[in-house]
Please model this.
Amino acid sequence: MLDIFQKCRDFKTAKFLIDRGIYPYFKEIESAQGPEVVLDGRKFIMVGSNNYLGLADDPRMKAAASEAVLKYGTGCAGSRFLNGNTIYHKNLEKKLAKFKHKEAALIFATGYQMNLGVVSCLVGRDDVAVVDKLDHASILDGIKLSSGEMKRYRHNDINDLDRVLSGIGPDKGKIVIVDGVFSMEGDICNLPEVVRVAKKHSARIIVDDAHGSGVLGKNGHGTCEHFNLHDEVDLVVGTCSKSFASVGGFVAGSADVIHYIQNVSRSLIFSAALPLSCVSTISTALDIIEAEPQRRDNLWRLTNKLKTGLNTMGYDTGKSQTPILPVIIGEDIACFTMWKMLYEAGLFTTPVVSPAVPPGQALIRVVLMATHTDQHVDKILEVFEHCGTKLGIIKAGSKKTTAVH
Model:
């Protein structure tokens, strides 16, 4: 008889890396998520976080969470559909809708649950969801949960998007779902062309702005603001775990569509409501983003300095246009080895290997926070130069680059 747990005993990949001392995941951080963190009593420069604006350890954020817990308790004890909905959830949704220039918004317990719930309830039996090949896993999983069909187009290839949409008959509902900023590569979707081609084929558009919110645009409102295309995108979705430095997910769009999602989405109806401590911190983050553009300015300044330094050494940072810098190493084992050297030198980085990236394109994902300093960047560059030279990944050279923003 086949034992369903046999696959668990046969799984050797992680154990192989653990035995070699180069397993980089599930590290136990002992401090707040700031520019520096503590592991095993040792201080590291954090270069692998999505805490873009450095708000996760901001005193105002912590005060908002503490006050909410003292006043409202630790949880809502039920789904928003039944007993877990509060006026504070609704007020945050109004603020998010304004932030994303939409009529209405809806908050979910996590960003992953949001994409599962939004996509699966909108894509029906006679519908086709068209996605960029590098879209986030939560989008793909949402389509799998739906009764509709998924078609994929080559990354940021508008001609291929046009080809895929052309092959869908007029009897099918069509929606294009695309990341605003791609989380591993750091490039921005070609939203003006996505909009043009989608409208040509009467397809609706969802932009996942998880990594654009708080970072892109004159006011940090995200990818649509970056391209001045607020009115051309039907829905903007995202997570609250990056620039908003909390947890949760949101969708913003027309009032009718949000009302439908609110009453049909299974991951909203069958999940407990977001605790008010999180609601309060997200609201506080939105206020800080609006009031302190200098945070965003410093993030971009430091990113440009780091990217220029890495490229000058000879590192390949791909097509990144954002604070996400993919330092491309090559083979998976080489990437894990590079990660271990960086770690031993005091840098907390994130290695990304296949299948998350194509084979032979393993990378170290490097991200700064607005609260890093020039001294931090200087140290990061010093360590990357030492480790890359020792491993033969870079050689002395004078490759130049232009700024990313």
Observations:
- The chain is about 40% helix and 15% strand.
